Amino acid sequence: MKTSLISLCIFFIFNLGQAQVKKLEEGQNPGIGNLDELEWLVGYWEGEVFGGDAEEVWMPAVDGHMIGTFRFWSEGKLVFSEFMNLVQEGDSFTLKLRHYNPDLSAWEEEGEWTEFRLVETGPNSVWFDGLTMIRKGDVIQLHLALTENGKEMTESFTYQKGQF
């Protein structure tokens, strides 16, 4: 009985961790979705990330594009910002973003984007390949898969609905 209970606990812990971030297999087609499903994301969001402060703003979709911005600062100094574009691509959509230093020099090469392909959507939730966003009331929980020194890890952030 004790062994079964321990096995069950390990199973649930493992699956809870796996559910935070989902991945597409190589060659796997992206999930099906429409930007209209992400109306819950529109607005101004703020929270603490990476030991500093962050703001994220999402505008309503227009012509198959939902535009967002992100900025992160620590100790009163801007560290980096992002321009984000959720792009409808047929029966799916992709999150494309570029990172910028405070002097507006881009991290990505000219013409390149960091891309997160859609895995699936749910009520007030979206799973991209390596990034998850889930809204509960006035809170959005983000889970981001990162690789640091060859080791994969998941960073989680909580945003509160804010006011301009």
UniProtKB/TrEMBL annotation:
List each copy of the DUF6265 domain by range. 39-138
| Descriptive protein name | DUF6265 family protein
Organism annotation: Algoriphagus namhaensis
